[in-house]
Amino acid sequence: GEQTLVNRTVGKLVSLREELKHKPLSGTLGIGHTRWATHGRPSEENAHPHTAGPVTVVHNGIVENHLSLRASLEARGHVFTSETDTEIFSHCIREKLDAGLDLTAAVRSILNDIEGSYAIAVISSTEPDKIVVAKNASPLVIGLGDGETFLASDIPALLHHTRDFIYLHEQEMAVVTADGVELSTIDGEVFERAPKHITWTPSQAEKGGYKHFMLKEIHEQPRAMVDTLRGRISLETGDVHLEDVTLDDARVKAIDRIYLCACGTAWHAGLVGKRFIEQWARIPVEVDLASEFRYRDPLVTENSLFIAVSQSGETADTLAALKEAKRRGARVLSVCNVMESSIARESDDIVYTHAGPEIGVASTKAFMTQMLALNLVALFLGRRRGTATAGAVTHALSQLSQLPGLVEHILTDSTDVERIARKYVAARDFLYLGRGENYPIALEGAVKLKEISYIHAEGYAAGEMKHGPIALIDEDMPVVVISPQGSHYDKTSSNLQEVMARQGRVIGVATEGDSDL
Ligand code: BG6
After folding, report:
1. Cβ of 353 below 6 Å from ligand 1
2. Which atom of ligand 1 is nearest to the CA of 315?
3. Tens of pLDDT along 238-266?
4. Which parts of 42-178 fold into alpha helices (H)?
């Protein structure tokens, strides 16, 4: 048969591009992979693809039982050349080919032995006209081009080539040839699925003239907020319409507790959302880190509503927490930014944040629209439970509809922010303080500084600072005090005085025009 040409390098993609200038690859089909090292250090022999005999594989995910599988394969004479869990796939599949199965059957037969998450693409020099893929918990989309077919982990990678996508769901496979795609479950049941037309333009998935994605996405917030509100608020009737929520009024009235789960920045959005929901719907809300919820034997009943908040809709801990809540009888509503993502598909109800693709790892526009969406959910539930009057909701909605313009206004001038950043660039530790709904915002600010500037930072409830971190405050530790006009203003100002009394350097976040703070 044909032969498979492989080229792998360590480091950034540009080094592979350089390599390919000297040793170009040519062929009618191919697979590629950029590796986020989970098993085995970043090195060429650990880079994908991994080959065993005629079989070549790339894999996204984690094979939980790779050690036992590796031991039994080595006992049967297979020689491994990497430290990765991925290499398991190439040896297992090869073994099935040697036993006489064709490539599709070989891939299908090994998947039941695999525990963990995978999106794999497999080729073999014995059948050089096809790529066999399979998915479980790691995302995989199929792009339908004109006389060509594409595979990727995410949509932006393919938007230059096509806008028509077929999404693979859990435990599904596809065989891609020049003639198109054949879909099947890993148990062998063949099925059809209509492609979805995605309206994202390629430019949306590019930087649009900004220095990096995060800056672009910060400036997309007004548009993302407008898109998240569009078609969902009615000031005349003082009500909220959530198109993908089928919770009927009886079910809404029966809810006696809400569990809200997320990770990272999405969890901070959840902490803010709790306040909205308790204020408007008068239902107790427990906010959990998804990784904690899964293992704390939560008292979920069929009268519980479980709300998952997730930008990607693929975060493993959040997906697992959702499945645990569902198993215990809860109704599941998700706030998600990616259509057809695993979390969206597992949910009974969905409120999409129409933030557009968020490429930056640190969440910005998604965070803002998550809080907005949770506010809409709170108003929606409040109206159906009779705890929020039409008049009060109309007033709240008219304020919400002004938010995008206010964000736009704030974003027009970042000179103050840049001046302050330069002043404190050498700081080694930051403290962020906030009260009430600004306490989660303080937590979020600290996470952002850690994630982006690699400066240690801690978010704290302003009223709690005296019981601990105040001991650390001196002229070397900048303290961000979030204190807009509002019910907590006076108390937060006194916390600010405590900081000043210890020569702390205060960076105030205040309502425009507040000269006192
Ligand atoms: C973290 C990201 O890894 O995952 C955060 O750095 C994000 O920005 C968190 O909030 C949760 O991700 P998601 O996609 O579930 O919102």
Report:
1. no
2. 15
3. 999 999 999 999 999 999 999 999 999 99
4. 66-75, 87-98, 103-111
